[in-house]
Request: fold
Amino acid sequence: MGQAACLAYHRLAACATLEQSGEQESIVNIVVTGGAGFIGSHLVDRCIEDGHHVVVIDDLSTGLRENVHADATFVEMDIRNRDRLIEVFRREQPQAVFHLAAQMSVRRAVADPVFDAESNVIGGLNVMLASVDVDVDKFVFAATGGAMYGDTEMIPTPEDRAVGAVTPYGVSKRTTELYLHCFQVNEGLRYVSLRYGNVYGPRQNPHGEAGVVAIFTGLMLNGEQPTIYGDGSSTRDYIYVADVVDANMSALNAGDGGIYNVGTGAETRLHDLYLVIKEATGYSGEARFAPERRGELRRSALDITKARRQLGWAPRTELADGIAETVVYWRTQRGKEKGKR
Ligand SMILES: NC(=O)c1ccc[n+]([C@@H]2O[C@H](COP(=O)([O-])OP(=O)(O)OC[C@H]3O[C@@H](n4cnc5c(N)ncnc54)[C@H](O)[C@@H]3O)[C@@H](O)[C@H]2O)c1
Reply:
């Protein structure tokens, strides 16, 4: 049975009984903010596969309407509009909320921290207020690992490491976690915050700055030369999008009030990532090297012991397999584009 079906046990206490009796599982109303985006749209697909009713709230600032599953209800709106958000929540009566809508460009956050705070902090507060208003049972938040911890010697980094966020984006994500704690204490909002590593997979925007996998894949499939900034020894924790979706589904039923890293626990060097993508795409050229960009983390990997123990979650996708899936996706997209011309 889909894990989401056992969510909100006080409302859906019949779950276990249903499972034992083999009857049809209960349908849960779920709101996914940012559900037209890269990660959110995969999460929407999974919720619908599991038989739930899904409402996507997205302003399409970076997301795409075509990413949204045909069976989801789509509401195009900005989460900064609190009154409209409350109206939508009252109409849809969600029992669970996955909050992924955010401005997620670190560079834009540095250039315009007020916009970042308005989208991520005020927008996040609005989603919390609307959730409390209709007595949502579970609120799952998309936070960040790398930008939250900053450069640290403790690799892989556990959740309780003092927050070293040095960008407005990291600060806005951490602030949202603090508000969630407040709302849990004062309003009884049950939440889980998931701090993702570097997520990659199909539908990631290759024009964004976070998606080195999407950028390299796009370039190498076109036979264009990718650029490695620095000597290629900087590391990240690359996690496949389906594993992130699994973590979100696990968080529906476990981990109340908890903060969890969602990564692989492994560091991958940028140059090694490049080699894996080169192999998968069949690119025959070589990468260009350029000076390291200021403000980039040197090393990042997330300790996922807590999520393994308390959420019962673990990543399942090897890097080479996830990259292969991503390359297949982009090849198919390119085929479709060519067919249209
Ligand atoms: N991709 C990663 O590696 C990564 C890592 C850590 C955390 N995250 C977090 O995961 C979440 C999803 O990221 P993603 O990679 O899918 O990015 P994305 O840009 O594809 O998705 C974000 C979605 O939110 C929507 N959105 C943005 N501002 C909005 C607003 N004010 N109102 C309504 N909708 C709005 C966008 O249109 C988009 O569809 C974000 O919160 C991001 O901060 C992502």
User: Anything to note?
Assistant: The radius of gyration is 20 Å. The chain has a mean pLDDT of 91.
